[in-house]
Amino acid sequence: MLHLSCVSGCKSSMTTCFRALCCKGPPPARPEYDLVCIGLTGSGKTSLLSKLCSESPENVVSTTGFSIKAVPFQNAILNVKELGGADNIRKYWSRYYQGSQGVIFVLDSASSEDDLETARNELHSALQHPQLCTLPFLILANHQDKPAARSVQEFKKGRQWLKLLCNSQTEGNMPNYFVTLLECKWSLVHCIVCLL
């Protein structure tokens, strides 16, 4: 008799548990946004994205073609297509722009003047590209921890951009910078955000 009541009680509890789990349905899906991440080789694109994905910094290898990372945030998931920044790869960047809903441009704030000029030219090309010119841009001046890093004032030069600090080795406010990009996308406002 005890055995039957135990089975009956378990059956009742399992039915209640099943209803509670199955009848509520799955949690609402977070919206997903497709972004393209560009910048010269050595700017720190892979390191920044790896840090946001909580990956080990020891395993970071420079991207030679492209890679895609899903970067989870509380209210959205960013599917970031990172494109390699070598000379022989940059000429193909535009082939990967289609379908992008935002752009992350990473530059090395401690790079040589020649590399910085090349980065400016690539950024200028991206800002004028027909598939990107209406999208929100997040511009990250990385490597602020290096002695040769340029200051905020050196990057300002009359531009009306929001400027903050960034370092791929310490996460700090980096996730908030991406939330700012999402807010630009959600409000459908074209914004250029420069994070130095």
Automatic annotation (TrEMBL):
A Pfam cross-reference name: Arf
Alphabetical UniProt keywords: GTP-binding, Magnesium, Metal-binding, Nucleotide-binding
GO molecular function: GTP binding; GTPase activity; metal ion binding
Keyword Nucleotide-binding appears in the UniProt entry: yes
Binding-site residues, Mg(2+): T46, T63
SUPFAM superfamilies in alphabetical order: P-loop containing nucleoside triphosphate hydrolases (SSF52540)
Domain of life: Eukaryota
Annotated GTP binding sites: G39, L40, T41, G42, S43, G44, K45, T46, G85, N142, H143, Q144, D145
InterPro entries: ARL15 (IPR042292), P-loop_NTPase (IPR027417), Small_GTPase_ARF/SAR (IPR006689)
SMART domains: ARF
Family: Belongs to the small GTPase superfamily. Arf family.
Protein name (Swiss-Prot/TrEMBL): ADP-ribosylation factor-like protein 15
Species this chain originates from: Nyctereutes procyonoides
High-level lineage: Eukaryota, Metazoa, Chordata, Craniata, Vertebrata
